[in-house]
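Support request, please re-run this one:
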Amino acid sequence: MAFENAIITKDDDEKYGLSEIYYKYNPKREVFINKQDWVINRELDCWLWDIFYFPDPEYDHGTLVKAIWILYYKGEIIEVVLDYDINRALRPKQFHRIWQLLDLNPKQTKLISRDEIIILL
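Re-run finished. Output below.
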């Protein structure tokens, strides 16, 4: 089975403690929003969740495309900082994002190496 786009269910929230993770990065939010960017591979017991966008210093209440994603792999939680740019040469024919990995925390775990993390991403 491959990764699939999904809506976070109550069972997902309870199994993975998603509300706690959400409020760690979004403490000012009053309600946990379950319609976040979320992809999951249930067979692999792995998911990736777009949890927080960095504020844009030039605009009030604006955000950058630079974001923190949480990668969960068999009980291990890895914070991934990603940014992207749009390849303007391909527009308007294609919409193509070029992703850049800025940081991993931790860089590797007991279960998964840095190279395996990058392959999953």
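The first helix runs from residue 10 to 16. The mean pLDDT is 83.
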